[in-house]
Amino acid sequence: MSNKLNAFEIAQRQLDKAAAILNLDPAVHALLREPLRELHVSIPVKMDDGSVKVFQGFRVQYNDARGPAKGGIRFHPEETVDTVKALAAWMTWKTAVVDIPLGGGKGGIICNPKEMSLGEQERLCRAYIDRVGRFIAPEIDVPAPDVYTNGQHMSWMMDEYSKLAGHYSPGIITGKPIALGGSAGRGDATARGGVYVTRQAAKYLKKDLKGASVAIQGFGNAGSFAATLFESILGCKVVAASDTKGGVYNPDGMDAKALSEYKLSNKTVVGFPGAKAITNEELLELDVDILVPAALEGVLTKDNADKVKASIVCELANGPTTPEADEILHKNGVFVLPDFLANAGGVTVSYFEWVQNNYGYYWEEDEVHEKLDTKISKAFWDVVAMREKYNVDNRTAAYLVSVNRVGEAMKWRGWV
Ligand code: NAD
């Protein structure tokens, strides 16, 4: 992650703040500050040139008081166990804030899939499941895709797990293709959830978002769908987008579909016709209505938060805002839709996928959209109720909702 901030320390500080406001039972607080279980694995993989490379991988089950752990598997050359722990903690809050009966987990492998052949990636996926297979199950811990992993990786992992289990087990992993028990509507669910939450925020703020300008940092899975959906559902115009190679800006707006197609064929948004080049840093400070960080964590910091001109920040990425930046944004009246609420659409539809797998009956896409809207919109208003009750910012309010729910489950179970 950027500028050497430890994501897990950030997650703990965010919890500490909520615990102080709630006057949380010290035992509940202590249990929520650390993961329940953390597995480190060494994964030998035969590479195409005949050599064997040993990769390091992790699976963290942060808390499963409300149901099986749930969370993605990231492939990243700079992955660390602290990032995985932070993401697992945020998954715990995320499943709780949208009130689905799952806990929080996360996995990661230190690798660069961009430098690996498909065969090497397949062997890595299978070997990872061979290592963590006894640690996960549909009733225990259910992984999903995340940064640099996709439906193909999930398919190989599901197949490997099914071999270990001795039967077809689609409920072991979500984010699968439809042909293997994936859910309709999963592809754009993270972005769609963010757009539905932004729609509720506009109602709360009494803002008309038709024609509102949107800047998206990170034009990957979440970011590119966000562009299309902000345009088609809310009538916004996408004026800026970026990826690792840089960004593009056109104050008159860019056609979201054309931009997505351009990104697909050129592997970057850079050079999109009619737009001028900007840096990722400049994108964050643009004079827009809605800023959507959809890349990696730690991009809004104390050094640039004061320069954010957007009135709504919809955090599709996990952990894009540092605690210092959070305070500055709140003080400046920026309405932040915190990551574990704004990007909870993905896990909500993952939950729907798991439910459909478990009872072997599948829903139409419209039904998935409607159920997602109901869940995530209710979550927004639950957060607003806490915001008003305790006079706190949205992230703190979301923590209050989630920590209360997880704490209550742990108490009923007799853990504390
Ligand atoms: P992705 O790999 O599809 O896309 C990431 C994008 O960010 C890529 O376009 C990449 O070029 C860009 N990027 C990476 N580093 C960057 C940087 N420093 N500056 C600008 N752009 C950069 O990943 P994704 O699935 O879209 O996930 C993006 C974020 O959303 C992550 O934080 C992830 O944890 C979070 N998220 C994703 C989902 C999901 O369902 N995909 C769900 C919840 C949260």
Provide a descriptive summary of the structure in words.
Helix content is 46%, strand content 18%. It has 2 domains: 37-180, Rossmann fold, CATH 3.40.50.10860; 183-411, Rossmann fold (3-Layer(aba) Sandwich), CATH 3.40.50. Strands 9-8-7-6-10-11-12 form a 7-stranded mixed sheet, with helices on both faces. Strands 1-2-4-3-5 form a 5-stranded mixed sheet, with helices on both faces. Helix 1 runs parallel beside helix 3 (81-97), helix 1 (7-22) crosses helix 14 (394-413) and helix 6 (189-205) crosses helix 13 (365-390). It starts with 6 loop residues before the first helix and ends with a helix. By secondary structure, it is α/β, with parallel strands linked by helices. The longest helix has 26 residues, at 365-390. Bound molecules: nicotinamide-adenine-dinucleotide. Nicotinamide-adenine-dinucleotide (NAD) binds at residues 146-148, 190, 217-223, 242-244, 280, 294-296, 316-318, 343, 346.
